[in-house]
Recover the amino acids of this structure.
């Protein structure tokens, strides 16, 4: 069977590997000269946000038959707001590298693939459709899906990041929610060694935010981070992404075209996590092609997660700094601490996002 995959990112490579496992040799088209983002980035996969997985790496190994090598387990997440601080401890998830370095998740997947990737591809969807029986759209955004009238865009955001040189612990990540600093958005640090980390800010492109001065915001954020962590950081290799699309496909498959990864709606609007669902959707599309499962059925829980995450986004946006302070302070409340520890434990698949969705809906309405 002639199967084309457009895009050799996480979802496209996961699809390619899964097809090969069942004896189908795909043709993979990649527009760049290599797999991986042009910039170096440390990302995270949080098991607590990707239920039913108890441990997202083990879950991927079981579902996709690929063992990914993360950097480390993140067992502490410290969250700052304007005037308070709280932390979550437990087996929260894993950090990993993205980009063109050897250990990035894309490079790990590519190294297991037999099929040749056609780099620097300029072939478009219409051409590929005419020449292949099945097409997997894995381009990392909703553009093609939008053009086909199959994408509900919920927001776009602006992202700026860089490498920060300082002193870190690879199992501790940090997040900042301060809407004076980053309106309706957030900033974070995920370390990839004890000396280097990625420092990133992201905020939605709402009309009021379009007027913001990104460089000024970035500088202010870097100052706050250095003050809060009580260290001076050397900031290198900055990157910027504009209008990064967050949305979801209306249908996961139309005729013989499969929408996977961010084209499907893997990127969760709540906090911007998309790796887990990208890898799964790629594999699920392959399973459908190989008659092992039905794509529409396999992705049903991922649509649900997307919708819960959208509720989280709207809830976060309905808060102000005072409410953020109160919410973040409560994380260190003795009673909540015990519950959070249980939720983060790898022995549970408790879906906290799903449980909190009705409460967040009510709170969002109240906050308006
Ligand atoms: C700065 C940043 C930080 C992030 N942090 C996290 C995080 O901490 N945790 C998390 O889970 N997720 C995070 N994400 C989201 C996550 O990276 C994505 O959801 C995930 O990579 C999407 O996988 P994908 O396969 O859909 O796309 P990608 O992995 O982006 O791959 C798409 C590929 O398609 C190629 N392509 C595009 N168009 C064409 C075309 N026309 N023809 C051929 N090839 C094409 C691209 O060059 C690329 O190689 C982050 C994203 C960004 C940008």
């Amino acid at each position: 069977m002639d199967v084309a995959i457009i895009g050799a990112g996480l979802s496209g490579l996961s699809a390619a590997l899964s097809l090969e496992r069942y004896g189908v040799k795909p043709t993979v088209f990649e527009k760049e000269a290599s797999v991986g983002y042009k910039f170096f980035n440390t990302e995270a996969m949080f098991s607590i946000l990707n239920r039913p997985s108890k441990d997202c790496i083990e879950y991927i190994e079981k579902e996709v038959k690929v063992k990914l090598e993360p950097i480390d387990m993140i067992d502490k997440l410290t969250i700052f707001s304007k005037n308070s601080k709280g932390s979550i401890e437990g087996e929260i998830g894993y950090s990993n590298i993205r980009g063109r370095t050897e250990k990035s998740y894309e490079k790990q997947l590519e190294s297991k693939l037999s099929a040749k990737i056609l780099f620097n591809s300029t072939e478009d969807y219409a051409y590929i459709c005419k020449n292949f029986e099945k097409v997997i759209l894995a381009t990392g955004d909703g553009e093609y899906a939008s053009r086909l009238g199959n994408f509900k865009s919920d927001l776009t955001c602006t992202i700026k990041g860089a490498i920060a040189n300082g002193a870190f612990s690879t199992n501790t990540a940090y997040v900042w929610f301060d809407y004076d600093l980053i309106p309706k958005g957030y900033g974070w640090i995920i370390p990839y060694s004890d000396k280097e980390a990625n420092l990133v800010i992201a905020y939605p492109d709402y009309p009021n935010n379009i007027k913001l001065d990104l460089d000024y915001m970035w500088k202010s954020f870097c100052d706050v981070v250095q003050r809060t962590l009580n260290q001076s950081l050397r900031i290198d290799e900055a990157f910027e992404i504009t209008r990064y699309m967050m949305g979801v496909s209306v249908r996961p498959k139309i005729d013989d075209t499969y929408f996977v990864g961010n084209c499907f709606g893997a990127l969760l609007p709540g906090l911007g996590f998309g790796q887990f669902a990208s890898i799964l959707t790629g594999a699920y599309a392959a399973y459908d092609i190989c008659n092992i499962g039905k794509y529409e059925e396999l992705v049903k829980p991922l649509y649900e997660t997307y919708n819960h995450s959208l509720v989280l986004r709207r809830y976060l946006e309905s808060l102000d700094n005072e409410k953020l302070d109160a919410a973040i302070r409560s994380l260190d409340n003795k009673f909540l601490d015990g519950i959070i520890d249980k939720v983060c434990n790898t022995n549970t698949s408790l879906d906290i996002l799903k449980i909190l969705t009705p409460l967040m809906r009510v709170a969002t309405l109240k906050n308006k």
